[in-house]
Amino acid sequence: MKLFLDVEWADVLASELVSIALVSDDGHHAFYGERNPLPAEPVPWVATVVYPLLERGTAAMPDRLLTKSLRTFLASIPAPTIIYDSPHDRALCQYVLDGLDEPEPEGPGPSITWLHLELDAARERWWRDHPKHQPRRHHAAMDALALRGAWLSQQGCSL
Q1: In this structure, which of 13, 56, 69, 128 has its CB flanked by the most CB atoms within 10 Å?
Q2: In a domain, 33, yes or no
Q3: 154 vs 141: CA distance, rounded Å
Q4: Which residues pair with 112 in a beta bridge?
Q5: Residue 79: half-sphere exposure toward Cβ, Cα within 13 Å
Q6: What is the pTM of this model?
């Protein structure tokens, strides 16, 4: 199964995770999580654009729970292939799987196939064709959905 990944981060180095989302190619499986606590000093753009979109509540998880939740989700997906468009997204996803700043997480990590695709033009077309979603652009779950839509359009599929 293909999973489309998007990650939001708080700093210019793309090293401080804010949120992470995965959505399956069939649209029936999704994961969304936010780091709790959030990075305390995000760059101004993240503070004014990304932070207001966050869901918090049950989506906001301490590092250990975020890692466990993501590993549990991926364990439920047979032979996952994670499609990403930014090397930062892959690195931060791996960082979550590795336990973030916590000691080594329990149990084996999931077996994942990673696939980097350049879908910038198709993703921008998806955003243009779905203006009702524009207000939530830069929410990781919405951006993962846009990446999925871009890939589907490249495959000649419609949503």
Answers
A1: 69
A2: yes
A3: 20
A4: none
A5: 1
A6: 0.94
